[in-house]
Amino acid sequence: MESSSFKDYEKHLDHPLFNNAIQLIEDAGKLIKADPNVIARLKRPKRALSVSVPVRMDNGAVEVFMGFRVQYNSTLGPYKGGVRYHEEVTMGEVTGLASLMMLKNSVLGLPYGGGKGGISVDPNRLSRNEKQSLTRRYTSELGPFIGPNKDIPAPDMGTDSQTMAWMMDTYSQEQGYAQPGVVTGKPVEIGGSLGRVGATGLGAVFVLERLLERNSRTVMGSRIAIQGFGNVGSHAALYSFERGGRVVAVSDVSGGIFNGDGLKIPELIEYIKTNKIVKGFPGSQPISNEDLLALDVDILMPCAMDGVINESNCHTIKAKYVVEGANGPVTNSATKILHEKGIQIAPDIIANGGGVIVSYFEWVQDTMSFFWEEDEINKKLHTIIIKAFDEVWKMSQEKGVHLRAAAMATSVNRLQKAMLLRGLYPR
Ligand code: GLU
């Protein structure tokens, strides 16, 4: 019987992203006729940490933030996944994201388990010093639980290579020697990898190219709308533009911009370096986020938050292909409706896997202290992500299911094999 404290614990994890992930794991289990004991284990995180993160703010007052790190599963290797700074971060959201990292690393064939971290904070209201103090204290609180062979954080929404540099330094100071392999997504000067910054966007475009190829189409001349113009969205836009794609609309927190002939993405990237937001970009007209999602385009790439395409708005989608640059942008019920409408979705756990794939290369390079050229990295990224996509495409054709179902089934199948080989401890 379940104890009442276990039910409290479950309440703590209640989040649409995690609830969606649990459903996906159950469905995958049915599709591959998995061992129910394996599915039961995959539906719960192995370990979940909450830490308080006190920070002396610039005005002298101390503010206490809540931080989390969920070590979801380590069947295939050390825990691996990003750290998110966002006002709405909760234990439930981090758990959902950690479960997606487990599924992502498995479907990509990486030797990693799944983890994710986050702090409930709006990073835009922090000064550089405050952000540094927050990051260092959070890292110190996680100290006993992370490490190059234990759990390897990386950037996610609201964090970047500078955040990773502070994490790497804090951990190394406390250990007494340099430990570059404790995080990935670091600046290249301290053991980061070439190609890591643009890797998620590049991986998404590799997947887009393959998806279109399977449908006898090309990126060249396709009309594309991109929601979110952070690290993932801006690179996805740039690499699509370089391949002759017509990126007609992009958006960020300030709203969206539209140009039916295609936005000049390299100029837009320059523009936001000084203006910070896409709004007001010369030669574009404003468009709301909802209207962007409903544009009559060939391809839609949601590269911001989870749950943006859901039951209430998915009927408005006109794109034929959706490539998920974000984690969990299309809910399960919306996936089903879009699939019935004949819209193909390249699922997040493959489409945005470029980031963690190059994180893996960074970690390998740190271990060897030998660094590769960017060309080699991009080539290896292409090999891994296309292999995963092709495997999933094949299964979706054979079983007559959509790509997300096939991706989840492939992932859970790999996890199941490894779990059964390792067995249940103590028995
Ligand atoms: N935060 C990224 C993701 O969601 C990258 C994770 C990593 O590199 O470990 O996949």
What's the layout of helices and strands?
Layout lengths: L3 H10 L2 H16 L4 H7 L4 E10 L5 E12 L5 E8 L4 H17 L6 E7 L7 H15 L8 E5 L5 H15 L23 H16 L8 E5 L3 H12 L3 E7 L2 E4 L6 H11 L9 E3 L1 H5 L5 E4 L18 E3 L8 H9 L3 E3 L1 H4 L2 H15 L5 H26 L3 H20 L5
This protein binds glutamic acid.
Glutamic acid (GLU) binds next to strand 3 and helix 13.
Q: What do these coordinates show?
A:
By secondary structure, the chain is an alpha/beta fold. It has 2 domains: 4-178, 3-Layer(aba) Sandwich (Rossmann fold), CATH 3.40.50; 199-346, NAD(P)-binding Rossmann-like Domain (Rossmann fold, 3-Layer(aba) Sandwich), CATH 3.40.50. 46% of the residues lie in helices and 17% in strands. The chain contains 15 helices and 12 strands. It has a 7-stranded mixed sheet, sandwiched between helices. Strands 1-2-4-3-5 form a 5-stranded mixed sheet. Helix 8 links the parallel strand 6 (223-227) and strand 7. Helix 13 (354-368) crosses helix 14. The protein is globular and about 55 Å long. The mean pLDDT is 97. It binds glutamic acid.
